[in-house]
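Protein entry
_____________
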Amino acid sequence: MQQTDHDIRNRLLIARLPAMPQILIKLLEHLQADDLGMAELAALISNDAGMTAKILAVANSSAYHRVQRQVSVEPALMALGTDMIKTLVISESVFQTFNNFPHSGSTDLRAFWKTSLTAAVIARDVAKRMDYPHVEEAYLGGLLHNVGRLALLATAPKEYAFNFTARDDEDLCAVEQRTLQITHSEAGAWLIERWHLDSFLADSVLYHHEPIERLEAAHPLIRIVRLAHLMSHHDAGDDEGAALGDGAALCGLAQDEVVAIAAAAARQVDKSAAHLGIDLAGADDIPTPPAYAPPSDPVRQRLSEEVRNLVLVSEVGQNFARQHGEAGLLESMTRSARILFDFDNAVILLENPTGQALVGMPSGGQQRIAEFSIPLNKGGAVAAAALAHKPAFVKRDAQSLGLAEEQLFRLLGTDSLVCVPLAAGGRSLGVMIGGLAAWQVPACQKRERFMQAFGSQAASALAAALAERGQAHRQLAHAAEEYREASRRVVHEVNNPLSIIKNYLSVLDNKLARREPVVGEMSILNEEIDRVGQLINGLADLQPSTGGDNGATNVARVADDVLRLFRATEFVPAGVAMTVSMPDTSAEIEGDADVLKQILVNLVKNAIEAIGSHGKIDIANRGHVVRDRTLYVDLVVADNGPGMSQEVLANLFSPVRSAKEGQHHGLGLSIVHGLVKKIGGTITCRSSPAGTSFEILLPARSPAGAVTGPRSRAMDSV
């Protein structure tokens, strides 16, 4: 049979079984406190119209009616007496509650209620003979000892309909365990535990089939209900005769006392049934066959379960693949585990980046788990499951329980843990911890292979999510690095026009003092201020263009502008001569004038720094050249400085991340290289102790005529 279909505990959890009536709860509270007098009984019963009507009906019956009809509660209670009132309240409450169970209306319950009433009456009389202080509690225990059979009938009518009328013995419990994975004793105890009573009532129901030798030191209520069960199901001469004698000894009763209690019980049951309006006629004629379990084919059952598991694993994997983001995946994993394995709660621990510990991953309502970690080298069941890639089952009372496991028990609020390894492709990512009740562990252990397959699917999806997160982090880091590089380039380039502006402000100040015209200087200042703005605005564009602009740029005009920038300022030492040589015919390139201007400013500035206080700088257009069937303008910037070392030349156009370390060793040349590429050109460098020259090939606008000879403009010893 399929475990999921026949786990009756799951059905009990969701079945709408009736709750304990309030009047019975209040009655038990007063009885346990020993403070229930007639006035309190009257007040309690008056709040329940149905119970009031029942009390009045019994009080006015032929058994109690003497002189006049009772029309109010208190005189009726006086007529009945305290013991009868308590019996009526308990019995009527139980019958009203459990007769409303699903399928109870379509099932003959006469034999069930007669057995329950018999056990209740016997339990009360045994309690009195043992001087047990809570006699009514014993009566209720006997009345409810088999209520688990009603619960099983309500939640599994197809599987349990036949066995509901079966003989109530050890064979019945074995069949229930085999077919439903739960006995009626366990189901009844579970039902009563939901009422949260301060009593051993649930235990008395749970152990009413327990071997007598195990109950010698048990609570009196447990022993009383065990004996009541034996007596209510005992027939003279059957195999339970010896057990009945042992049960009597268990409660300290002699054989003749047991016989007397049994004889009195039959009369009291008939009387109680009459008062309660329950028809027990013919109850003894209802057959009680032996318990029956339909035959099963273990091979077919296992094959069916394996196929089901394969389908579930496939569906789980597809569900994980549809999740977006790591948080959504973790939430889906824990939610799926709770559904598939009946976990009360679940948390996920993943290996930290060093692989030394398991660290909690917050998801859903479990945020505190983020502060939790387990060292992998310290042992423990959780760490062992992660390292061995094998599920582990941990009980709360285990002797070798570590502090980490104790914390997980408190965190999940359960008495058993299941450790599901998250491993795929031989790699362990961590472990999922599920919390569940102890009774669920055997069923979970049978599904260990499915659990391991689930962990593998979850690990595969998680590995993909982590890889995606790593890729996203790398992309963010790359973007951040690009932005930093762009910022450094902008800072470097902005310094050039700022230096020119600073120098021209000094020239402007001197001219204004002499009242000379400053129109040319103001024009240059405006141009450089605009260039600063353009450079800063360009910081937003982190992806440089791969080709030049469509506009045409006159090389000679840009060279004149650069020459004019450096003229008449203190930026160029007095001993440095600058010369610009251009052909008489115009030479135009495909590219932006500002980009070409930025290239020349950087190269001239570097040349000035290279030659020091004395030397010569030449800017020359050497005409057109053809390379790879493309026409270029050959522009050269040369100086007669000391040249560059071989190490500097090897990394000339690479960006550096530190301040300059020697001549020409900074960020400027890497910027120049990028700008030349931006307009589709190439740049090369030649350097020796006699000087350095940069040859720049820029894409020509159109074929030009022959060069007629150079014209020169010189700035000597400015």
In short: The chain has 27 helices and 14 strands.
